[in-house]
């Protein structure tokens, strides 16, 4: 014989929150964005060059900002735009790091090396 069990108001409420994504994992699958950085391999000293995160993706399609960190003594560039131009003022192999941040605060990271050559 099967018995019918009536759900409590609390369990019904929690089930509704889970269904709406308001409780539990928060923003869907909770994964970090995939950070993809396009940067030139070679740049001349004193040249402006584009750094692009346009191919970066997020499962929830809610990328909030991009943070470009260039290891040449300049400040990090944090912006809602996926493309910046950077003026390279230091010769040598310069590391460029990219952080892609989604609306839930998850961070995807990648990096590249740019050879900055004297003219």
Q: Compute the separation of the termini in Å.
A: 87 Å
Low-confidence stretches: 1-7, 10-27
Which structural class best describes the helix and strand composition?
mainly beta
- The 3D shape can be described as elongated
- Report the major sheet: 5 strands, mixed
* CATH homologous superfamily identity: Immunoglobulins
Q: Record the strand order, biggest sheet.
A: 1-7-6-3-4
Q: Name the helix and strand elements from N-terminus to C-terminus, one letter apiece.
A: HEEEEEEE
Instruction: Please write the CATH class name.
Output: Mainly Beta
CATH topology term: Immunoglobulin-like
**What is the arithmetic mean of pLDDT?**
84
The number of E-state strands comes to: 7
Give the second-level CATH assignment, the architecture: Sandwich
Helix content: 10-25%
* Strand percentage: 35-45%
Number of helices: 1
The value of Rg in angstroms is 22 Å
What number of domains?
1
